[in-house]
UniProtKB/TrEMBL annotation:
<dbReference type="InterPro" id="IPR018336">
    <property type="entry name" value="RNase_PH_CS"/>
</dbReference>
<protein>
    <recommendedName>
        <fullName>Ribonuclease PH</fullName>
        <ecNumber>2.7.7.56</ecNumber>
    </recommendedName>
</protein>
<dbReference type="InterPro" id="IPR027408">
    <property type="entry name" value="PNPase/RNase_PH_dom_sf"/>
</dbReference>
<dbReference type="Pfam" id="PF03725">
    <property type="entry name" value="RNase_PH_C"/>
</dbReference>
<comment type="subunit">
    <text>Homohexameric ring arranged as a trimer of dimers.</text>
</comment>
<feature type="domain" description="Exoribonuclease phosphorolytic">
    <location>
        <begin position="157"/>
        <end position="224"/>
    </location>
</feature>
<dbReference type="InterPro" id="IPR015847">
    <property type="entry name" value="ExoRNase_PH_dom2"/>
</dbReference>
<dbReference type="InterPro" id="IPR001247">
    <property type="entry name" value="ExoRNase_PH_dom1"/>
</dbReference>
<feature type="binding site">
    <location>
        <begin position="124"/>
        <end position="126"/>
    </location>
    <ligand>
        <name>phosphate</name>
    </ligand>
</feature>
<dbReference type="InterPro" id="IPR002381">
    <property type="entry name" value="RNase_PH_bac-type"/>
</dbReference>
<dbReference type="Pfam" id="PF01138">
    <property type="entry name" value="RNase_PH"/>
</dbReference>
<keyword id="KW-0820">tRNA-binding</keyword>
<keyword id="KW-0548">Nucleotidyltransferase</keyword>
<dbReference type="InterPro" id="IPR050080">
    <property type="entry name" value="RNase_PH"/>
</dbReference>
<dbReference type="InterPro" id="IPR020568">
    <property type="entry name" value="Ribosomal_Su5_D2-typ_SF"/>
</dbReference>
<dbReference type="InterPro" id="IPR036345">
    <property type="entry name" value="ExoRNase_PH_dom2_sf"/>
</dbReference>
<keyword id="KW-0808">Transferase</keyword>
Length: 237
């Protein structure tokens, strides 16, 4: 039995609220159970120096957690003068995951920055950030297309992410914190709505795992991403 009483292949309740803030070109507040992440997308008419003049667009991301996103207060990273290693790793993952789902030629020579701020954490913050970040990005690109600044749709397929793992000897979908903290195997699966893989982060957290178990987790991830992609499309249509 899972701590949440969910079935092995059952996700947490997902809700998405767009236009949560008024200033960003794209915005989505995504809630996956008790994990809540605010994602905003900002369009800029510039690109990093290393692709300037190439005609290619760029998508990047920043990630952070509010001090009381967890059950004890975390010190703001700004107060220490630098980002922690976990923060840097996660925001790089978000950025490259979202870029993988964008036709950078069609986007044109501009940059879109996706900011992901964790308001409340209960496991799976990076997955929620990628899934919500794609929605914010999609809404920003919709504005570019409506204005005629982008002609061909650079985002034909959603990009979503979901966690899976081996908990109490069973493959389970969408780990919350109690499961994540005790899982023998923990993985994050990033893929498109058509199940093309972008990245898999997989590790044993106390026990090894077999190819059959890996395949079972892949099947669960595909199911979860299909549900998330449907929610993404509904939120941005």
């Amino acid at each position: 039995m899972r701590p949440s009483n969910r079935a092995l292949d059952e996700m947490r309740t997902v809700s998405i609220e767009t236009d949560f803030t008024k200033h960003a070109e794209g915005c989505a507040l995504i809630k996956m159970g008790d994990t809540h992440v605010l994602c905003t997308a900002t369009i800029e008419d510039r690109v990093p120096p290393f692709i300037k003049g190439s005609g290619l667009g760029w998508v990047t991301a920043e990630y952070g957690m509010l001090p009381r996103a967890t059950n004890t207060r975390m010190r703001r990273e700004a107060a220490s003068g630098k980002q922690g290693g976990r923060t840097v790793e996660i925001q790089r993952l978000i950025g490259r995951s979202l870029r993988a789902g964008v036709d950078r030629v069609a986007l044109g020579e501009r940059q879109i920055t996706v900011d992901c701020d964790v308001l409340q954490a209960d496991g799976g913050t990076r997955c929620a950030s990628i899934t919500g970040g794609w929605i914010a990005l999609r809404l920003a690109v919709n504005k570019l297309m409506k204005a005629g600044d982008v002609i061909s749709d650079p985002m034909p397929d959603p990009v979503a992410a979901i966690s899976c793992g081996i908990y109490a000897g069973q493959p389970v979908l969408d780990l919350d914190y109690p499961e994540d903290s005790e899982a023998g195997v923990d993985g994050n699966f990033i893929m498109t709505g058509s199940h093309q893989l972008i990245e898999i982060q997989m590790s044993a957290e106390g026990s090894v795992f077999s190819r059959d178990q890996m395949n079972a987790l892949m099947d669960l991830a595909e199911k979860g991403v299909s549900e998330l992609a449907a929610a993404q499309k509904a939120a941005t249509s």
